[in-house]
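U., I forgot to send this yesterday:
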Amino acid sequence: MDTDPTPAPASRPPVLPHVLRLDLLGDDEPLRQARRFVRLQAEQLGLEDAADDAVQVTAELLGGLGAGSSPTVLRVGEAAGALVVGVDVRFADGRTRPVLSGHTRDLLRQLSTETGWSPTDDGAQLWCRVP
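Result:
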């Protein structure tokens, strides 16, 4: 696993009104729920064309952070005509920055026009803007 943190620190995206809290118990249900939620939000916001890429971005953000990190909140909303997917992550291993695999970083770069993260009290908020 590549240890370079990505995406680069950046300002937070606009506050997004749609929030889904995830209870991760080690099964696949939270990921399925997140995918459905993202697709539904894309449709409701009139951004159906971005839904497939946003679902893939969501899966990468939820699954690409490795051991010692726990996604806690998923946010989806619209900003400047694009779909924004945000994930709050808690770090249990003392990290202060997200560390993504090279594969995850590459996919995020391909599927989004902008990515970023900002620190929180116990982790980080990561986000991607999907055109």
